[in-house]
Amino acid sequence: MEERELTINRNAWKVGFTPQAEIWNGRLAMIGFVAALTIELISSNGFLGVFGL
What is the pLDDT of residues 12-47, one digit of tens each? Predict the structure, then answer.
């Protein structure tokens, strides 16, 4: 008997509540968090302090 694997493109750009959309949401959130942390470490201000808020 031959087993067939389901191939799901996890990098597909899909709209709505799909696993692919949640993966992209997580990736973009991680990039944003690292960017905010980097700005805070470099400028010695909070993220909002850089913009004068």
Answer: 777 777 888 888 899 999 999 999 889 888 888 777
In angstroms, rounded to a whole number, what is the distance separating the alpha carbons of residues 29 and 27? 5
Q: How many helices (H) and strands (E) does the chain have?
A: 2, 0
**CA distances (Å), origin 18, targets 7, 29, 32, 38, 53:** 15, 17, 21, 30, 36
Cα dihedral sign for 12, 13, 15, 16?
A: positive
Q: Are 13 and 20 in contact (CB under 8 A)?
A: yes
Distances from the Cα of 49 to the Cαs of 15, 34, 35, in angstroms? Answer: 34, 17, 14
